[in-house]
Specification:
With about 110 residues, the protein is mostly beta strands. It has no helices and ten strands. It starts with 12 loop residues before the first strand and ends in a 6-residue tail after the last strand.
Length: about 110
């Protein structure tokens, strides 16, 4: 048996090619991301990975839309979006595959 704390992980990412990581792999990346109201991330896209975002609580904006608890947003390769927490929010994010250096910053949302 092993145990750890999410707060000890880099930005909530606990599985993937990170330090620290509970399972170091390039096959997949998994995180639990906690956001305070007003938190933002600049627009970006992935060329290789598909990113699955599950809104566990709160309200967020991605792809120019508002999303709430239970919504699942699937960003496929080439789909670009920014992110804004409209309330305090918690998301579970899965990136498949966990491709290193597959984050490309861009000017605006593509969808």
């Amino acid at each position: 048996m092993r145990a750890s704390k999410l707060d000890e992980m880099k930005g909530g990412w606990f599985i993937g090619n990170f330090e620290p990581s509970l399972m170091k792999t390039n096959d997949v990346e998994v995180s639990v991301k906690k956001y305070k109201k007003g938190a933002k991330e600049e627009a970006h896209f992935h060329k290789i990975a598909t990113e699955y975002t599950v809104v566990m609580s709160g309200k967020v904006r991605m792809f120019g839309r508002e999303w709430t608890e239970g919504d699942i947003i699937i960003a496929e390769p080439g789909d670009a979006t920014s992110f804004e927490a409209l309330t305090d929010a918690v998301n579970v994010v899965v990136k498949l595959p966990g491709a290193n250096n597959d984050k490309y910053m861009c000017e605006e949302d593509t969808k």
